[in-house]
Automatic annotation (TrEMBL):
Residues 22-302 form the Peptidase M14 domain. Its cofactor is Zn(2+). Belongs to the peptidase M14 family. One of its GO terms (molecular function) is hydrolase activity, acting on ester bonds. InterPro entries: AstE_AspA_cat, Peptidase_M14. This is M14 family metallocarboxypeptidase. It comes from the Bacteria. Keywords: Carboxypeptidase, Hydrolase, Metal-binding, Protease, Zinc. It comes from Aliikangiella marina. GO terms for biological process: proteolysis.
Length: 302
């Protein structure tokens, strides 16, 4: 029996991947925790079903929400949550933004919100999909990750040019205890990065960093939760910071969600829910604050 937690120096084949999948189980309800909130929001926003995951189409329908007062002359904002299904506040933060703040901005922006891109991952508390693919490394043409492929088709179908993209994520302690070891085992490599930043940070686009935009998000979130300090090397997760709480990745070349939208402004938020200084509500509020801070900045430069 293959070890699905530690690297053997050999990449997983289909046998090891099937074993990993057999070890996964449903731990919470997408219907109860997400779909019922989407249904409740249908009075305020247009709910568009853009398909379903083939793993269980009835159990995992996919939705985006759009503002009813769509105006083609307004910039369009894309908000995505649950690309990594296990990152709870990304999903719940997107829904809370819709429920509490979005209507304050619909006269100025159009919104496309996909609150839970990976519902199987949400229910099983997983970073990967059932094929051991990471959706947040899979946003490219003909993607084999149907979570990514379905979202890209749905956004393209709107014919909207995305002005800003907020992709809502978390960094959790289970990254070290579960997901980094599994990644090392799957790929037959040694995992060298074990850094878990203690606090909130953002990931911008190295080719288009928009530092003032990122800084506005950080300033907004610091009113809700603490910002992750750099480590002794001036880094977060092995990457040099560009300002407090901000690092940059080449988002397009590594096929992150924020890369496919080709937005002028993009950010990946990273909340730290395992800190003793925060609770679940703080984490949701931090995601909302990140979006609000970014939107207020965009309004200030219009």
């Amino acid at each position: 029996m293959a070890d699905t937690n530690h690297s053997t120096g050999k990449k997983w084949g289909q046998t090891e991947k099937a074993q990993w999948l057999s070890e996964q189980s449903v731990k919470r309800s997408y219907h109860q925790e997400v779909m019922l909130q989407v249904e409740a929001l249908s009075a305020k926003f247009e709910v568009v079903n853009y398909g379903a995951l083939s793993y269980d189409a009835e159990r995992y329908p996919l939705f985006i929400l759009k503002n009813f007062n769509w105006e083609d002359s307004n910039p369009t904002i894309l908000i995505t949550g649950g690309v990594h299904g296990y990152e709870t506040s990304g999903v719940q933060g997107a829904l809370k933004f819709l429920a509490t703040k979005a209507e304050d901005y619909t006269n100025f922006f159009n919104f496309i919100v996909a609150p839970c891109v990976s519902p199987w991952g949400y229910e099983t508390i997983n970073r990967w999909n059932p094929l051991t693919l990471d959706p947040n490394r899979s946003f490219y043409p003909e993607s084999p990750a149907e979570e990514a492929a379905s979202l890209m088709r749905a956004v393209a179908k709107t014919n909207a040019k995305i002005f800003a993209h907020f992709d809502l994520h978390e960094t959790t302690d289970t990254d070290n205890t579960v997901f980094r070891p599994a990644l090392a085992a799957r790929d037959g490599v040694t995992q060298d990065n074990w850094n878990i930043p203690d606090g909130f940070y953002t990931v911008g686009d190295a080719e288009n960093p928009q530092e003032a935009f990122q800084g506005a998000i950080i300033d907004s979130v610091r009113q809700v939760t603490h910002i992750a300090p750099a480590d002794e090397n001036g880094q977060l997760i092995g990457v040099d910071i560009t300002q407090e709480g901000v690092i940059n990745y080449p988002v397009k070349s590594i096929f992150l969600c924020t890369g496919f939208s080709d937005a002028e402004y993009c950010t990946t938020t990273e909340v730290y829910p395992d800190s003793p200084l925060v609770n679940d509500e703080d984490c949701k509020n931090a995601q909302v604050a990140a979006v609000v801070g970014g939107l207020d900045y965009l309004l200030s430069i219009r």
